[in-house]
Structure prediction request, 280 residues.
Amino acid sequence: MSDSVKWSSVKSYKDIRYEVSGDGIAKITIARPEVRNAFRPQTLFELEDAFRLARDDISVGVVILTGEGPLAFCSGGDQRIRGDDGYIGSDEVARHGVGRLNVLDLQVQIRRLPKPVIAMVAGYAIGGGHVLHLVCDLTIAADNARFGQTGPRVGSFDGGYGAGLLARTIGLKRAKEIWFLCRQYDAQQAYEWGLVNAVVPLEKLEEETIKWAHEMLELSPIALRMLKASFNAADEGLAGVQQLAGDATMLFYMSEEAQEGRDAYVQKRRPDFSKFPRRP
Ligand code: S0N
Prediction:
């Protein structure tokens, strides 16, 4: 497989682009470069829709999340439309004058998506944008990437994955430093801390990310799916067990043993499980 791609658009949106490579990769791009790819509720609804499309498309094996242009991956919530109780969108909830906190749903969706998600980061990954790269499975950073949280400066915080998963990823002291001081860190520092998987020259960013995607596309999709669920399970409590157990159910459905139970029910006879070993 070649490591350059001709992307085809699948569906048009206002704030994002959703494209596929034709050989197993979906690319989701936050396209609001005028605000360093900050997200508003509209952006998040569209991202949720695109991730659902990527999940349900059986020809897609790896998803890339990125931001438009070289200056930013994402700068978090759009502060210009932040109301007094959350972000104000154009949806039904906002029409009643009530804000929303919906980036958390997107974070969960990325973690539960049963395919590897790679954050492809050029420029700033800041605030809620930093948490978005964090919840992706892998991060490939351009050499101009800059990482940080701004919450205590702008009056917000993410005490869920933004704090807990960050501490799991780079250690508690460093995670507290990032949140308590609101400094920015360059790509090399992020790499040394284990916050990103690789740093490459900006002009090689997409080529390198696609190379990583192609390597994963050569591997077993179910093994990757089970590994992703396994890495996340302990942190997710019963929801993590549910996802792993759901995968076990999917695999069991594929077995003759489970199919005997289904067939017996449909044929109105007693199931005969006698030929299936009671495995040690
Ligand atoms: C990204 C930064 C560092 C880039 O600096 P640079 O390159 O100097 O550019 P600027 O001149 O600052 O920016 C260019 C234009 O873009 C606008 N802009 C940038 N970021 C935003 C933004 N986040 N919102 C709105 N506009 C933005 C600038 O204003 C400028 O516009 P013009 O040219 O018109 O002046 C720098 O821009 C920066 O620091 N940005 C702000 C980063 C930030 O504080 N983000 C918000 C952090 N908070 C969150 O993300 C909330 C997370 C969240 O959603 C959440 C968390 C937990 C629980 C629930 C929720 C939830 O609400 O769902």
